[in-house]
């Protein structure tokens, strides 16, 4: 049996001699690449994202959702209650009108004003099931923002479907006026012989429905379109009240402001 010839462990060179062994027979070394130069065995640094606060965000969203739901529910319940109240009672505002106004005295000097008016006001309650309870009513007369008289009316209870006639005297006894106010009044009297008049009635009112009473709410009645003629003798003059319009407005006070 013939012996097999295996290739030599050491490769021969071109001239038949064996090539020298380098590094103990290991693979030949090659130039180091960039990864080897910068320590390729070191793990790559990757910045970690900030931790997510899922639990806290979830609690905030849940709280906002329930708060919004609660507010919407309250608004809907209030709207439903208001609609039911309106259907059952059909509430309407009271109305006021100036029935008559007489000027019995109007004396204007360089610094003072003495005036006297006889006022009659008609108050109407158009409701069938709503009663109005008024505090004492304060009355003020003014002409172009100049106060020319004041008065009052007593407290009253205004029943359902009721028309009440209110009479009082509005006066100014020796009220001091500044020069601009006196000049404005004299100019009006000289040119037109009449004065425009505005009447304001201020009070607070409760609303009674059956046995239920609300809290007091401020109201103001403002009447415009009145013109008065100053009497020249002892006989009083009567103002024209056919075109007088009286508006009733709520007076809601929030901290320092009244709306």
Q: Could you please describe the fold and organization of this structure?
A:
The protein has 259 residues and is of the alpha+beta class. The protein has a domain at 95-251. It is built from three helices and 14 strands. It has helices spanning 34-37, 54-89, 179-192, and strands at residues 95-108, 112-125, 131-134, 137-143, 146-153, 156-158, 162-176, 194-209, 212-213, 217-229, 237-238, 245-251, 253-254, 257-258. Strands 3, 4, 5, 6, 8, 9, 10 and 12 form an eight-stranded antiparallel β-sheet that branches. The protein has a four-stranded antiparallel β-sheet with strand order 7-2-1-11, with no helix packed on it.
* Weakly predicted, low-confidence segments: none
Radius of gyration, in angstroms, nearest whole number: 49 Å
Instruction: Report the β-strand fraction as a percent range.
Output: 35-45%
* Number of DSSP helical runs: 3
Share of helical residues: 10-25%
Number of strands: 14
Largest sheet features = 8 strands, antiparallel
